[in-house]
Fold:
Amino acid sequence: MNGTPVPPSGRPHGPARGFPNRGLHSVHVIGGGVGAGAHVLVLARGLAARGVGVTVCGPSGADSGFGFTAAGARFAPVEIGRRASARGDAAAVAALRAVCAGADVVHAHGVRAGLLASVAVGAAPLAPRRRVPLVVTWHAAARAEGPRARLVELLERRVVRAADLVLGASSAVVDRARALGARDARLASVVLTGLSGLSRSCGPSGSCGAAEPPEGVEETERRRRKVREELGAGDGPLLLSVGRLGAHRGFDGLLDACRAWQDLRPQPLLVIAGEGGRRAALQGRVERERLPVRLLGLRDDFTHLLAAADLMVLPGRWEARTLVVREAVRAGVPVVAAGAGGLPEVLREAVAVVPQGNPAALGRAVAALLEDPARRAGIARSAQALADAWPTEDDAVAQVLSSYDELLQRSAVRR
Structure:
């Protein structure tokens, strides 16, 4: 006996306990979501630093976007599309099966990734035995209506029942997983602090740019002035919105909402970073109605835009929403969000929430904040305090390591 502390799996942990985690191999499966990719980057960096072998499976452009290989992980391209197709899914499952054959734990991020991973490892709902434990981190509940809602529910049920453990990004997601029959569902420590210095492209792929070096106060202020000058904001308030310009993303409502602050002096300027099929229609409205709005298209300098903004406005729900809001909160930029879903639970007083699909309420909330500097400053202080209290990367990594150990112990007992 050498006195080495051994966790339940029988594998010593890494630097946090002073010993390398030799032999443990985790495979992480992601689709195209920014939030999931950002979280996996945090886990990959932390797990690799603790001696855990990490393989990330995802769309071919994900590694160049997020930098998994640079974080110490191996990257295996697997094309996991947002929509099902028999040929594409079969190819993805075959690729995942090959990668997961040598895994100790498979950790999928998102329902779609979880579905394909569960097939690849042979996980069946309520299966009594399985060689490779499956963890699914569920970042956000899907929002579907009509006949599609039933299909989405069936897929979610299939995934949560196949998983040995479901980690939910909010208590609402955890409750839903339990209601759908998850055998074990817990609240996840979803930490995105590792992306504070990343520029981000606001396009359909959700790709991220390369990390930027930290700047001093003077350089930050110089860049802020430069960005505001480039955008034509002058001395007036600069409002920032970001997201894919697609149907049902809320940007038509946001243009309606901007009428509420159109007569303020100095007049605020709203800039929208993103691209999508609705851009031409939105640009037509801006020109016809002479709205104080600029559509910026794809940008790879989200953090610089955020640093220049006085307020962030989010008109609807989309996949990268929590990531965007967390970045704003960390930067101390007040946020007005419509239909916030699980955000109030995480962000509390750091975000002003208005009803989804109510442009008038959104416009009034923005105008009220613009006319109340003291309230904006209060929100910024609350946001900074909240961000300081968020779980750290070490917390997130410790949680998943503990979960892996627990699942491996269960698996050893079943054998």
